[in-house]
Amino acid sequence: MAIIIIAIGNILIGGLVGMTGVAGFLLPILYTAGLGYSTTEGLAFSFLAFIISGWLGSRHYQHEGLMDRRVAYLLSGGSFVGAIIGVRLNLLLPTSWVQFLLYLVVLLSGIAILIQQRHPPKPGVDHLNQPVLLVILGVVTGLICALSGAGGPVLVMPLLVLLGCEPHAAVGIALLNSVFISLPAAVGYLSQVQFMTTLPLLAMIIATHGIGVIVGSRIGPKIDGRLLKNGTAIFSIILGCIKLWP
């Protein structure tokens, strides 16, 4: 039964990521709160899926000419380092602290999505020509995402827009950035689980999440993305409040 839930969950969440660019942070919740996996296992499975969604999604945006490679690589270089630090911190901190941070990020992500929907950020002053700023931003977001299980785009995309990036290009950069966050995070967390015994499950996660992302990216333009984002945000806020309630 758990296998079926994981397959359906990855297809649905992968579809949401393909359609809206958000919702990846729901995967750790599915594994830990929904199916009872440990925090380390849930993060390992999730970051493996994020590699797939980030790679497939960023390829689409690059094909459409919506990718500033200079910005993407500077940001991603910082995120790679930040993700390594985040994984190490996760393994040192008590599980209760990590779970608290995870649900806090889910709650804040839901609130951020609602605010974004009602008050879309306007591109501000162009700070994208400041390499040091981009690297620092990458380190901070990579650390937070790797430590908490957030996919990346839900935090990185709005920050890029505020720095002056065109919104569609920001989504593409954030998706590529999520690959650089997820690679060290997935390796770090997978090294803490019984890899060989979970290999069939990992293969199924890759396949189903990939299917969801591909389908979602194709039907996304035909569906009201605003409605989907609002639904994801409301669900995240409710879940975060329930889990954080003492």
Low-confidence stretches: none
The end-to-end span amounts to 31 Å
Helix fraction bin: over 70%
Mean pLDDT, as a whole number?
Answer: 84
Keywords: Cell membrane, Membrane, Transmembrane, Transmembrane helix
Membrane topology: Multi-pass membrane protein
GO cellular component, one term: plasma membrane
Pfam family, one: TauE
Index terms:
about 80% helix; about 0% strand; about 250 residues; mainly alpha; single chain
What would you say this structure looks like, in words?
- By secondary structure, this protein is mainly α.
- The protein has one domain.
- It has 10 helices and no strands.
- α2 packs antiparallel against α3 (39-63) and α5 runs antiparallel to α10 (225-244).
- The relative contact order is 0.22.
What's this entry about, in short?
The chain has one domain (2-244).
Record the SSE blueprint:
Blueprint: H1 2-20, H2 26-34, H3 39-63, H4 69-92, H5 95-118, H6 131-148, H7 153-162, H8 167-190, H9 199-219, H10 225-244
